[in-house]
Amino acid sequence: MMGVLNHLSTLLLLSLLLPALSHVVEKFSDVKDCEKFFLEGTTPNLPGILVGGTVQDQNRYKPICQFYKDRYRFATLYDTTNRIPVFSAYTFTGKVVGRPSQSWMIEPQLEDINNQHDMKVDDKDFPHNQQAADTDYKNNNKHLDRGHLFPCLYAPDDAAKRSTFTLTNIVPQARSFNQGSWSRMECRVRDALELNCKDANDQIKAYVVTGAVPSNNNTLKNRVNIPDLMWTAYCCYNNNLKQWVAQAHWSKNVQDTNKKH
Q: Is the distance from CB of 193 to CB of 204 less than 8 angstroms?
């Protein structure tokens, strides 16, 4: 009898734990450690895509609780038709210098593979029906980079930095734009977050959402949408002003000219 009870208790424990391991969910609120990347758990309202926390077309748009090294790192809403993220949401708690050497990864659960609860290093033999592959970006003749939505330079530690190297956090971004004015904006915003975003305990914390607006028919290798626009927005409590503050930036996803900012 004791053995049967132990077996039943193990099954009960597993039934409680398994949902928390899932990456691809119906709602971000399904996983509390994923919901925390949004201020008060409130997701953006995107007409026709995400309204009141509910995905409007669940066959196309997939909420991903990005899980790496036994921890949820950030949240992404992924467009499986365009094979790019709609947005990635994350918290900024301070910077760590450096960029790891990390192979590009994918999300196995987008391909209906449910036995892996972590990101997987991409390889050419893996199915890529619902997401971009690293080969989509290689040897392209359009001068496009793999552009992070959750920037590596915003991540608080080495594991978090590595987690940003998933193709579900990447869009095709004009190279001189990615490495030019967009990069300069990211650095200046990061400096502003460090300086101004302090909670009541004087700890750095900001909520950031970065996204892309897809083009109508501009694609990379006839598979991956090349966005028309990039945007980013943040909000945080400014302990010096004793109030919440917010800021947003956007730009067309085109090659930089004349060092524009």
A: yes
Q: What is the pLDDT of residues 53-70, one digit of tens each?
A: 999 999 999 999 999 998
Closest CA to 36 of 87, 72, 85: 72
Rounded to whole angstroms, the Cα distance separating 200 from 23 reads 32
Cα atoms found within 13 Å of the Cα of residue 29, Cβ hemisphere only: 11
Exposure b/e, 124-153, CB count within 10 A at least 16 = b:
eeeebebbbbbebbeebeeebbbbbbbbbb
Per-residue pLDDT of the chain (261 residues; tens, 9 = 90+): 445 444 444 333 433 334 444 589 999 999 999 999 999 999 999 999 999 999 999 999 999 999 999 899 999 999 999 999 999 999 999 988 888 999 999 999 998 766 566 788 988 878 899 999 999 999 888 999 999 999 999 999 999 999 999 999 999 999 999 999 999 999 999 999 999 999 888 899 999 999 999 999 999 999 999 999 999 999 999 988 889 999 999 999 999 987 665
Per the CB < 8 A criterion, the answer to whether 220 and 146 are in contact is: no
Q: Which two tokens stand for residue 199?
A: 């909670």
How far apart are the C-alpha atoms of 229 and 46, rounded to whole Å?
15
**107, exposed or middle or buried, with CB in 10 Å at 0-12, 13-18, 19+?**
buried
Token readout for 102 is 């990390």
**CB neighbourhood size of 7 (10 A):** 10
CB distance 149 to 225 below 8 Å: no
What is the residue type of 85?
P
| pTM (two decimals) | 0.89
Neighbours of 251 (CB within 10 A): 17
Q: Give the containing element (helix H, strand E) for 158.
A: helix 158-163
